[in-house]
Design a protein that fits this description.
- With about 90 residues, this protein is α+β, with helices and mostly antiparallel strands.
- It has helices at about 5-15, 20-35, 85-90, and strands spanning about 40-45, 50-55, 60, 70, 75-80.
- Keywords: DNA condensation, DNA-binding.
- InterPro entries: Hist_DNA-bd, IHF-like_DNA-bd_dom_sf.
- One of its GO terms (molecular function) is DNA binding.
Amino acid sequence: MNKSDLIDAMAAHAGITKAAAKLALESFLENVEGTLKKGGRVSLVGFGSWSVSSRAAREGRNPQTGKTIKIAAKNVVKFKAGAELEGAVNK
């Protein structure tokens, strides 16, 4: 399912227009992104939670040449599925 499929499904399920569903989805995504940018955590009980973790700089290898390369430190987004979502997927 891609973004437009999700918008169509949301509109049909909620009985709203596709424009309203698109606006709702974009608002949700912007709010999650904004919270994560500030270092916060977004938690939807039963569904899952998103958080930001720092990954330290490290050395790696270029698989084509075998040369050692430096990999810069960066922040990464983590998602942990909630119990209800895991249960629904594993039925």
